[in-house]
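The instructor's notes for this session suggest beginning with a concrete chain rather than abstract definitions. Hand out the sequence below and ask the class to guess, before any prediction is shown, which regions might be ordered.
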Amino acid sequence: MIELSDIQAARQRIQAHVRRTPMIAAQPVRKTIPNVPDLHLKLENMQIVGSFKARGAVNKLLSLPHDQVACGIITASGGNHGLGVAYAGWLAQAPTKIYLPHSTPKHKAEKLAEWGAEVIYEGAVWDDANRAALRHAERDGLAYFHPFADPAVIAGQGTIGLEILEALPDIHTLVIAIGGGGLISGISVAIKALRPEVRIIGVEATGAPTLYESLKAGHLIELAEITTVAGTLAPRRSEQINFDIIRSHVDQIVLVTDEEMGAAARWLWAEMGIAAELSGAAALAAILTGQVQADGKVCALVCGAGTDGIA
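After discussion, reveal the predicted structure:
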């Protein structure tokens, strides 16, 4: 299990290479949210490369011996984690390979190339690409960066929790999107260690309810299919480390549709001028659909930039 000290150490390690992202109050707005009158937004869409993933990737990079990194780094991604790893490779000037499923938006592959990474397509979903990346890493002796089940990656993502508590010390409820579970794992460890009374709500897509179904079953399950177009929320299976942390630290998981994420992305654009991808708007979608209600301060994490929900 990850501890608060791991996250605090990660913060010291990565602070020169990532941004402390803004926390803003979602007011004044034209379309208010009656069930959450005091809403705040943590804008990780303004992180370097456009998502929180840079935090975990850089912490993983700086946790490795230099000679191991020099041989090259590799991962599989739905897009955002790949960008975080590409950024880490750019920092280290190390050869970087990113496996993507064929469903990955073209613009994300183009951004990966801009950061100097080699893009390789494999399979229909992240799990397919990941198996290929693992084989490649073992064959060529490359440093593999897991997107959500690596303790160093989880600790890096957890640094967001420290920033949230500093910006909003009297927070009541925190709402976070879930893909594989690395983001909510790290943040929930930090928050519950310092403010155990804070309610943490995870949000998954109805088309990829990986941890929702796993928690309901009491053990990890692998989904038969993925139907959401929000690829960064779409592994068929999480991992035991994430399952264990989420089961003990997260109070509830709710589900939102692609259409609801799109409506939330349009709300962010129209009301706040924030360009969030579908997954980046998932936390707000749970609030707009009435699945989150609180009289106290609520923070929704806007975890990734994009325009797929606006167009």
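Then share the key points. The mean pLDDT is 96. The domain at 53-144 is CATH 3.40.50.1100 (Rossmann fold).
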